[in-house]
Every structure is written in structure tokens, then in C-alpha cells.
């Protein structure tokens, strides 16, 4: 089975336009070839970022973006 994996880091915005913010979470989307139009999502959240909605917001943004780029305007939970 072949799969495509897209990984994303979520960093804290330092407000200075730089990219030196602390890592808050990472999000991964995995699409398996035998099931086109579907994907698995996973995440890890740094201990200092838990309870702030970081992972759920990052998953929402990335899944909508990934599905929209493939011609699926709406992602849905299984």
C-alpha cells in the first residue's frame, strides 16, 4: 500500500514577523491510495500548548485546505 503523508508544524507567533516561535504542535494528514478522497489525520501537542485548542484548530485548517486542493470543498469526520 502506498500513502501520501503531509506534515505541518504549528509554532507560536512571536509577533515580530520572524519564524522563531516555540513549537506548539505537529499535524499529519495521510492519504491511502486504495481509498481516494479520504485521509487519516493525527497530531501531537507540546505539553505547554495543551488545552488551548491548538491541535483542533490546526487540524481544521489543514484538512479543509488539503481536501479543497483536491477538489473536495468540505472535509467530514468519519
Question: Which bin fits the share of residues in helices?
Answer: 10-25%
Beta-strand percentage range: 25-35%
Mean pLDDT: 77
Encode the helix/strand succession as letters.
EEEH
Secondary structure elements and pairings:
Layout: E1 3-11, E2 23-32, E3 40-45, H1 54-69
How would you summarize this macromolecular structure in one to three sentences?
This protein is an alpha+beta fold and 78 residues long.
Question: Your description of this structure?
Answer:
By secondary structure, the protein is an alpha+beta fold. The chain has one domain (3-69). The protein is 21% helix and 32% strand. The chain contains one helix and three strands. A three-stranded antiparallel beta sheet has the order 1-2-3, with helices on one face. The longest helix has 16 residues, at 54-69. The mean pLDDT is 77.
Task: Spell out the key features of this protein.
three-stranded antiparallel beta sheet, 78 residues, alpha+beta, 32% strand, 21% helix, 3 strands
